[in-house]
UniProtKB/TrEMBL annotation:
One of its GO terms (molecular function) is catalytic activity. This is ABM domain-containing protein. Residues 4-50 form the ABM domain. InterPro entries: ABM_dom (IPR007138), AI-2_Isomerase_LsrG (IPR050744), Dimeric_a/b-barrel (IPR011008). It comes from Mycolicibacterium paratuberculosis (strain ATCC BAA-968 / K-10). The lineage of its organism: Bacteria, Bacillati, Actinomycetota, Actinomycetes, Mycobacteriales.
């Protein structure tokens, strides 16, 4: 099952670095810790952890944050009435 189809996945997007074409950025979000745990315990994630290291030149870096929000907020820098 692709990550975007997982229960509790809010988004899963890959981007290629503008500075280094061999560098990618993955931005993903899950509804809650249970959804994130289900993702890292899924068969496809475990398979990726076995297959992907051979394609990498170094250990991936990660920023992991929990955000205490339940939806989108209005953008403070731009207001349209």
């Amino acid at each position: 099952m692709p990550p975007r189809a997982e229960e509790g996945n809010l988004w899963f997007e890959w981007s290629r670095s503008l500075d280094d074409p061999a560098e990618y950025v993955l931005v993903e979000a899950f509804r809650d810790g249970d959804a994130g745990s289900a993702h890292v315990n899924s068969d496809h994630f475990k398979r990726a952890m076995q297959e992907l290291p051979q394609a990498l030149k170094s250990t991936p870096k990660i920023i992991s944050q929990t955000v205490e929000a339940t939806g989108w907020s209005r953008m403070g820098e731009m207001t349209v009435d």
